[in-house]
TrEMBL record:
Name of the protein this chain belongs to: Uncharacterized protein
Top-level taxon in the UniProt lineage: Bacteria
Amino acid composition bias (Basic and acidic residues), ranges on this chain: 196-205
Annotated region (Disordered), positions in chain: 191-212
Transmembrane segments: 9-28, 34-54, 75-93, 105-122, 134-152, 172-189
UniProt keyword list: Membrane, Transmembrane, Transmembrane helix
Signal peptide extent: none
Length: 212
């Protein structure tokens, strides 16, 4: 499994993404009031980096190999765990810039990583090659938009700002994200299996269906 992870995971790309992420957190620590939007962008960059662990461009080929999807996903998750570990260390070392809510900032990253990895794994289970480029770009774009524009921040505090903001509601929202992704991935699959089980077998017609 270690040898597979060493070959299959794009470690260079993960290192680049992790370096940029750490750089953003250092800037937030230095100028928290001025550069706070970079905190949300760093969360998006974390998840966008991790999703590159899971795509399989040759999906049609590897799905025929003895090693199943669960085994391959577990092996590839070594890269995701490494990046998440760097995230936790970086948040801890820059904790003075988060208005006393370093734990919440760390959880934002973990929740988005779990949701993104779950979505990519669900895509692979459906036979898709899990397009990391599109998913990664979407995550960074959405996180950047929310961090900069802060739409409906009073009602939906995705990236709270300063100690007086609504961190409790934000914590609930972030905790709900992985759960919603999991439900969204499993319910359609179960419905499809249930529909197939409920289908009545075809009856033979014509002379082939007559008994002598």
């Amino acid at each position: 499994m270690i040898r597979y992870a060493a070959r299959a995971v794009p470690w260079g790309l993960l290192g680049t993404g992790a370096g940029l992420m750490i750089g953003l957190l250092l800037l937030v620590e230095r100028w928290p009031y001025t550069l706070w939007p970079l905190q949300g962008i760093a969360v998006g960059l974390l998840a966008a980096t991790v999703v590159w662990c899971y795509p399989e461009p040759a999906a049609a080929l590897v799905d025929t190999l003895p090693r199943g999807l669960f085994w391959r996903t577990t092996a590839r998750s070594a890269g995701a765990l490494a990046v998440v570990l760097l995230w936790l260390i970086a948040v801890r070392e820059t904790r003075t810039g988060y208005f006393g809510h370093a734990t919440d900032v760390a959880w934002q990253g973990i929740a988005l990583v779990v949701a993104a990895a779950g979505f990519l794994t669900w895509q692979r289970s459906r036979g898709s090659d899990a397009p990391a480029r599109a998913v990664s770009a979407a995550i960074v774009g959405i996180a950047t938009c929310i961090a900069l524009a802060r739409p409906s921040a009073d009602v939906v505090p995705i990236f709270p700002y300063t100690a007086g903001d609504d961190w409790s509601t934000s914590r609930v929202l972030w905790s709900s994200l992985p759960v919603l992704v999991l439900i969204g991935a499993t319910v359609p699959a179960r419905s499809a299996r249930g529909g197939r089980r409920g289908e009545a077998p075809e009856r033979p017609s014509g002379r082939a269906g007559r008994t002598r």
